[in-house]
Write a structure and sequence with these properties.
Arc Repressor Mutant, subunit A; mainly alpha
Length: 74
């Protein structure tokens, strides 16, 4: 499993969806913003606790997940 220190999955946070560590911003939210045409700087400005690096980590996590390189924790 690839290590993603900026991403966490905790059943007690957002129903166990992957989030940016220390926030309630889900990887899904970041992907949806990207789909709307927002870039990393815009997304980071919308969520004050996020950095561009957090946005990049969310995108990398999603890409790895889609490539089946991440094994879901039980």
């Amino acid at each position: 499993m690839l290590e993603r220190p900026r991403i966490e999955i905790d059943p007690a946070v957002m129903g166990g969806k992957p989030v940016i560590r220390g926030t309630r911003v889900t990887v899904e939210q970041v992907l949806r913003e990207c789909a709307r045409g927002a870039d990393a700087a815009v997304i980071a400005n919308q969520y004050p606790r996020l950095t561009r690096e957090d946005v990049a980590a969310a995108l990398a996590f999603a890409a790895d997940y889609m490539a089946h390189e991440i094994v879901a924790a039980e």
